[in-house]
Write a structure and sequence with these properties.
This protein is of the alpha/beta class. 34% of the residues lie in helices and 16% in strands. It is built from eleven helices and twelve strands. Helix 1 packs across helix 11, helix 5 crosses helix 8 and helix 6 runs parallel beside helix 7.
């Protein structure tokens, strides 16, 4: 397969999950080709297992289905289990010509229909011709995005003493809780490190952060100089600015995306990952990040130190593999 970069048609299947959206857009931008976003929304039928749906648009809303029509794309980039039947149906309609890129394992049913499946190393799936192993997850935290955020927010945190320590806070997951006690411990550690360095905190929470955990965290921060943006607050979210303008980053390890986005900065990254908060797969990712020099465990850190590492973004690796396989 050889594509002309000037005429190649690229579709992005974007659903309602923010993490999936970020990963797909990250790969598409790293690929550097023009693309069309296909917003897809599901009906209750999407809850059915993929071995029943296989190749189908039947689980999509009518408004989503009408936007999926010929001319069919040369490349489809999608993420997550629910997009897999949609991607397969597009390939079927193109008579097998569409190159399907799936981020994260789509399930064993119809796996061979995908041209390239990007699978995190910590999933330990094993080799296959269409599998491509990555560290972490692709995302949109690029050098360009960070530079743009820094320009937009320049001067907004100058009243806070340096070094600036970004504190990126997640929350509950399906299997684990981010309890108020954990939040209190995190707040106390972050405050101690920031104060010890004569600096301040740039704190942001997520939609998974419970009010109880946020309250416990902020109480533990006490009088430490800080800028705080809680999920749902009015105004622009400074998340990207925090990553761009911080001298150090502390991130909770409950999210693959947040951990990898922090490691995209090239700055010192410390991961807060108590055993009762972290599932096994995330713990394996953290080990990979530590082994690669991208991050260090927060536990046991007594003072902040300056160190650096290459920016981590699996989107670049996936884009390079796509180009190789389609002859770009």
């Amino acid at each position: 397969m050889t594509l002309n970069p000037d005429t190649a048609r690229v579709w992005l299947l974007i659903d309602d999950r923010a993490g999936n959206r970020s990963q797909v857009l990250g790969v598409a931008r790293a690929l550097g080709l023009k693309f069309m976003i296909k917003e897809i929304r599901y009906t209750i039928a999407a809850e059915l297992p993929n071995y029943m749906l296989m190749s189908s648009f039947s689980m999509l809303t009518q408004s989503s289905r009408v936007n999926l029509m010929a001319p069919w794309p040369d490349i489809v980039i999608a993420a997550g289990r629910r997009t897999a039947p949609v991607a397969r149906r597009i390939r079927e309609q193109s008579k097998g010509k569409t190159f399907l890129v799936q981020i994260m394992y789509p399930g064993s049913s119809g796996e061979d229909d995908f041209s390239l499946i990007a699978i995190p190393k910590h999933d330990a799936m094993g080799p296959a011709d269409n599998r491509f192993e990555i560290i972490g997850a692709p995302h949109g935290v690029t050098a360009e995005a960070l530079a743009e955020a820094e320009i937009h927010w320049r001067g907004k945190f100058d009243h806070l003493p340096k070094p600036h320590v970004a504190l990126i806070v997640g929350g509950d997951t399906k299997r684990k809780k981010f309890t108020p006690d954990m939040a209190r411990d995190l707040g106390a550690q972050a405050a101690k490190l920031a104060k010890g360095a004569g600096g301040s905190l740039l704190i942001t929470t997520s939609r998974r952060s419970t009010p109880e955990a946020v309250d416990a965290l902020l109480q533990a921060i006490g009088d430490t100089p800080a800028n705080v943006f809680k999920w749902g607050d009015e105004g622009d979210n400074p998340y990207m600015a925090y990553l761009a303008m911080a001298d150090h980053v502390i991130v909770t390890g409950d999210s693959v995306s947040m951990s990898c986005e922090a490691c995209a900065t090239g700055k010192p990254v410390y991961i807060f990952a108590p055993k009762k908060m972290i599932v096994h797969k995330h713990a394996k990712l953290h080990k990979d990040l530590y082994a690669g020099g991208y991050a260090k465990p927060l536990d046991g850190v007594e003072s902040l130190s300056d160190w650096s590492h290459p920016p981590l973004n699996a989107a670049d690796a996936i884009a390079a593999e796509i180009k190789k396989r389609v002859g770009l």
